[in-house]
Every structure is written in structure tokens, then in C-alpha cells.
Design goal:
The complex is a heterodimer. Chain A is mostly helical. Helix content of chain A is 70%, strand content 0%. The longest helix of chain A has 42 residues, at 85-126. Classes of the chains: A mainly alpha, B mainly alpha.
């Protein structure tokens, strides 16, 4: 395999076994050293697994304790009695509306992101016209610019729009949906663009020979063919928008004293930063648990798709 | 077949481009404009001050601090995350026993992969709020509680974690504690990425290496690692962006969002501080433009360094 053209990484000559004749190779890994290494692998992997799982489990179990138990026995993973009403209390203390707002925004913002993103990516990837490159690079440049740069003018723009179009003002769901879509377009277009490029021309041409319009070709032929890409970028967008906290903190502010329409990430920050739960530790734990369990469960059920979807998003 | 192409393309692009121009491009352009004024943010009066804001940047003590903290994260977050992810991927894929089919992954590697990936699907906010409780500075925190119980830490003098500005290896301790969270949450994702890349390397390369008498360490360092070059450089670029965006952690976990005593300021927190607490929007925009230039230069630099001829297989 002479394709390896550059020097390798840090060579660890101390661990490299001397060359063996091929006949002896079968027991290279099953000898004493191999077994120790196997044991060490398991030990280290198990330690890291515990470091990941234990904090999560601790949060969930603390959410089921009484407040005095949280203070008295902070470390124990087994509550004296399961306090389910912590969840009820946290739920009515605001988490319910956080969930509702998040769901309401995400259903539309993710759908619209996917639709507009793949439409734009398709037009840019498969049609030659003047300004094609310019528009493509305009979208791409959004990937490198820090969001904080746009914060102040963005809020001002939204505020001014709200004066004449109240539905697009601060603290409005529709506004947040459009902002999410706009800010998700860069990566979605970047990803789908490379995807549409790889699809064969012949099928699109056949569809058009059969008399399908460009729009029809896109929706009934090309889009179904792009399904693997759509799943990847869809998972990416769902997680990204569910986790978004900066844009809602900036834009879902109450300007005229009405209650804020907070989404989940924003609401949790506020609860913890402003100590909204003050001495209600179990309630805060319950809130965090409710924010993380749905995502974790969805992930465990669809772990193969989520893993390959997210890593494909990076690998492209 | 060119019939109606112009109308079709316009129809498909009009809405996305309009949204993007209004909510992304226009705010960026305005920010660049404001950075040349002394606008306070709340009044309508603004005066053109030329490059004054930019000149001021260079003598601002806070910016200098934030700059070095950003550089700290830029170096350490990718370095530690990739090293740990590679190590985990290595154990997972070559830590198992060897049989006729070659070296195997450890038993249960599928379960490990699922678990290690957990933090990736949690939002940074959930992670931050959770770690806030783990890092509590009294016996109620997970780590302090454990250490007090086994007697490693004095109950009257617990670890201060993110409230600790004392330097460790020349860097405020609070930054090391934040770094730990970043590595904790990122390692699993990149491990899965590297694992997938390792498995896409054709078996016959390994067979050839084993025929040549290479052991698993040798094979890993001489064959696997070089072939992973592409994935590693992609990971480096992405982690670079994440490192620039540690703001959620700073925002939730440090006292007065950048404290204690400005020990954990990064660019984003300085922008926020100047814009919303000191009411100097013009100046905040200048910092943001500087950050944008810094980011773009960095991205270009990284692409340049990591661009190498691809190894096709």
C-alpha cells in the first residue's frame, strides 16, 4: 500500500513488537500482553462510560428526592421515596410553556429550513445562471461569522419590524421561526448543495423528457432521491434548533411587559442563572431532567441514524 | 429544456435569499457600520468616529485578557478532545482479542459508542446547568461531596471550581474547569467519527500490515493514524469553531458572566458586557468585527495547514 506518502504520527517504538514470522501472527494479540491490553481497554472504556453516565443519572435521581434529602444526602443515587411531584411542580413553574413554545417553533422552523434550504441548494447546484456563485458564497460566508457580531443590529431590526408588523416583532413565535430558518440556511445549503451535485443527471433528464416541469422534477424525483441527505441534515437542524439558546435569549424579550414566550434552553438558563428555583433544588433537577430525557430517549431509539446523520454532517 | 429556467430559479431562490439577507446579511453589514460610530445603543444619536473604536481595542486590558483566553481554548479544546477521542476509538477498535480475522474491537463496543455519544445530543445549556450542580462549591456538589466523603478535600475549604481565579499553569483555574466540560461533552462525538473512519479503511491494508509482522500499536500509529488524517483535520476545524463559542458555559457557569473578576472573559462575553452593561454598542460592534476577522483568518489558516493530498482508498 504505497498510497501512504507522508510520515506517520508519533511512533512508539517501545510498544512495537519485533517482526514475527507470519505463521506466529495468530497469537500476537492473545498472548499475555494482548490479554492485559484487552483488560486495560475495558477498564478505561468503563471508567469513561461511568464518567458520562454517572452525572446524568445523578441529575435524574436528584430530581426524585426531597429538598432536604438533596442537601443531606447529595451523593446517594437512591432516594428514600420517589418524589414525582417535583416534576409536577417544575412543569407548572414554567417548563410546560417552554416545551409548548419550543415545539410550536421547531415544527415550523425545521420544516421550513429543510424546504427552503433544499430548494435553494438544488437551484444553486444544478442550474447555471448569472450570480450563482455570488449567492452560494454569500450563504457560505455565514458559516464563519460569529453570531454575536449581528446581535445588536438583529435585535434592532426585529424591534423595528415589530412596530409595523406586530407578528414579526420581539417575543413572537413567527419571528423566531423565520430567524431560525435564516440562520440555519447556511449549513443546510452547504450540505445539500454537495448532495445534489452527486445525484446522476440522467434521471432528472428523463423526467423532463417525460414532460415534467422543473418544479415537478424537483419535488417528485430529486427530493426523494436526496432522502439520506435530508435525514442527516434534518437531525442536525432539529438538535441545533432545539439547543439554540443565544437567539431566543436575545429576541424573545418582553418589550411591553407581556410574559416572555421562552423556549426550553433559554428558560432553563434563566431558571438557573436567576436562581428562579432559589431553594428548590429538586425542582431545578426535575427541570433539567425533563429537558434532557426526551432527547436522550429519541437518541437511544434512533441511535444509528443520529450517529451517522451527525457525523456525516461533519464529514462532508 | 431551458424553457422557464429563469422563472424557476428565481422562484426557488427568492424566499431563502430574502430571509437570509434580512436576518443575517443586513445585521452583519450594519454591525460593521456601527463599529465606526460612538452609538450607545439606546439613543438615536450617533457620531462617526472613524477607526477610534479599533484603536481603542488595542489598549483595552479586558480585550487582551479575552484574546488570550480564546487562544487558550482554541489550542486546548481541539488538542485534548481529539487526543481523548482517538485514544477511545483506538481502544474500542483494536482493544479486543485477535483471531483469524485479525484484530477485533472490544466486546460491547456498540454499547460504549451509544453511551459516549450521550453528551452530544444534550444541549450545551442542559450540560452547563448540570455541571453547575456538579461543580457546586459546597458539600452538595457531586465532586466536592465525593472528595469530602473520602477525605481528600477539607469540608471547610472545598474546591472553588468556576469561582476560582487563581492561575494554574499560568491560566486561571476557572478556564481549566470549563475546558474539562468541553472535552467531556465533545470526546464521544469525535470518537464515533474516528471510529467510523477507522472502519472504512479496507481490511486488506490491515492484513498486509499484519502479514508484514506489525502488532496492533504499530499498525495503529503507522497505518491507521495517517489514514485518519482527513477526519482529524476536519475535527480540528470544527472544534476550533466550538472553542470560539464557549460562551454558553461562561454565561451559565461563571460568576457575573465572565468572572470572577474577569478571569474567564472571552470575546463573546466582552461584547455582551460592553453592549448591554456599559451601553457602548459602537465599541461592542468593533470588537465583534475584530472577532469576525480573527475567525476568518483562523479558518483560512486552518484550511491551508490541513489541506493535503487526499489518500484515496
Amino acid at each position: 500500500m504505497s498510497t501512504v506518502t507522508h510520515p506517520s504520527g508519533p511512533a512508539r517504538s517501545d510498544t512495537a513488537p519485533p517482526a514475527r514470522p507470519p505463521a506466529a501472527r495468530r497469537d500476537v494479540g492473545n498472548g499475555f500482553g494482548g490479554r492485559i491490553f484487552n483488560g486495560f481497554s475495558h477498564l478505561f472504556l468503563a471508567v469513561w462510560a461511568i464518567m458520562v453516565v454517572y452525572p446524568l443519572l445523578w441529575v435524574v435521581m436528584s430530581a426524585l428526592k426531597t429538598d432536604s434529602e438533596v442537601i443531606r444526602e447529595p451523593l446517594s443515587l437512591i432516594p428514600d421515596a420517589l418524589q414525582w411531584d417535583n416534576f409536577a411542580r417544575a412543569w407548572t413553574a414554567g417548563i410546560d410553556s417552554f416545551f409548548l413554545n419550543t415545539l410550536l417553533v421547531l415544527v415550523f422552523s425545521v420544516t421550513l429550513t429543510m424546504l427552503l434550504g433544499s430548494m435553494a441548494a438544488y437551484a444553486l447546484a444544478r442550474y447555471e445562471f448569472r450570480g450563482n456563485r455570488l449567492i452560494y458564497w454569500m450563504f457560505l460566508s455565514g458559516l464563519t461569522l460569529p453570531i454575536y457580531l449581528a446581535a445588536v443590529p438583529l435585535f434592532k431590526g426585529v424591534y423595528n419590524t415589530g412596530v409595523s408588523l406586530p407578528l414579526l416583532g420581539p417575543n413572537k413565535h413567527l419571528m423566531l421561526i423565520l430567524v431560525y430558518v435564516a440562520w440555519s440556511l447556511s449549513f443546510t445549503i452547504f450540505f445539500m448543495h454537495s448532495f445534489f451535485r452527486t445525484l446522476p443527471d440522467s434521471i432528472a433528464e428523463a423526467a423532463q423528457v417525460d414532460g415534467a416541469s422543473h418544479t415537478r422534477t424537483f419535488f417528485s424525483v430529486m427530493l426523494p432521491m436526496a432522502k439520506p441527505g435530508l435525514i442527516s441534515i434534518g437531525i442536525f437542524n432539529v438538535l441545533g434548533q432545539w439547543n439554540q439558546w443565544y437567539l431566543p435569549t436575545l429576541l424573545m424579550q418582553s418589550v411591553s411587559g407581556e410574559p416572555k414566550n421562552q423556549v426550553i434552553a433559554q428558560g432553563l438558563i434563566e431558571l438557573s442563572v436567576n436562581q428562579g428555583y432559589k431553594s428548590d433544588w429538586s425542582g431545578l433537577f426535575a427541570g433539567v431532567t425533563m429537558a434532557m430525557l426526551p432527547v436522550l430517549i429519541v437518541y437511544i431509539v434512533f441511535q444509528r441514524q443520529v450517529q451517522s446523520g451527525l457525523t456525516a454532517g461533519v464529514g462532508k | 429544456m431551458r424553457h422557464g429556467v429563469a422563472r424557476f430559479v428565481t422562484g426557488f431562490l427568492a424566499l431563502p435569499v430574502a430571509l437570509y439577507l434580512f436576518y443575517v446579511v443586513w445585521p452583519f453589514a450594519q454591525a460593521a457600520g456601527y463599529s465606526l460610530t460612538d452609538w450607545g445603543g439606546y439613543s438615536d444619536s450617533q457620531r462617526f468616529v472613524g477607526l477610534d473604536n479599533y484603536v481603542r481595542l488595542f489598549s483595552d486590558e479586558l480585550i487582551r485578557k479575552a484574546f488570550w483566553h480564546n487562544v487558550f481554548f482554541l489550542v486546548t479544546v481541539p488538542l485534548f478532545t481529539i487526543a481523548l477521542a482517538l485514544f477511545l476509538a483506538f481502544l474500542l477498535n483494536v482493544g479486543g482479542r485477535e483471531d483469524r480475522a485479525g484484530i477485533r474491537g472490544v466486546f460491547g463496543s456498540g454499547i460504549y459508542k451509544v453511551i459516549f455519544f450521550f453528551p452530544q445530543v444534550l444541549s450545551l445549556v442542559v450540560i452547563a446547568v448540570m455541571w453547575q450542580q456538579i461543580y457546586r462549591t459546597d458539600g452538595q456538589g457531586l465532586i466536592n461531596g465525593l472528595l469530602i466523603k473520602i477525605g481528600l478535600v477539607d469540608a471547610d475549604n472545598p474546591i472553588a471550581f468556576t469561582a476560582d481565579p487563581e492561575p494554574f499553569l499560568g491560566v486561571p483555574a476557572v478556564l481549566w474547569w470549563l475546558l474539562f466540560i468541553a472535552v467531556w461533552s465533545g470526546a464521544g462525538f469525535y470518537m464515533v467519527l474516528f471510529s467510523a473512519a477507522m472502519q472504512s479503511i479496507p481490511k486488506d491494508i490491515y492484513e498486509a500490515a499484519i502479514l508484514d509482522g506489525a502488532g496492533r500499536f504499530h499498525t495503529f500509529f503507522k497505518v491507521t493514524l495517517p489514514l485518519l488524517r482527513d477526519s482529524i483535520s476536519v475535527a480540528w476545524v470544527y472544534l476550533g469553531f466550538i472553542a470560539l463559542d464557549m460562551y454558553a458555559l461562561v454565561f451559565v457557569m461563571t460568576p457575573s458572566q465572565g468572572g470572577p473578576n474577569h478571569a474567564s472573559e472571552i470575546f463573546a462575553s466582552v461584547i455582551q458586557f460592553n453592549a448591554f452593561q456599559k451601553g457602548q454598542f459602537g465599541y461592542a460592534c468593533a470588537i465583534a468585527v475584530a472577532l469576525a476577522i480573527f475567525t476568518i483568518l483562523l479558518a483560512a489558516l486552518q484550511l491551508r495547514i490541513t489541506r493535503r493530498e487526499r489518500i484515496e482508498f
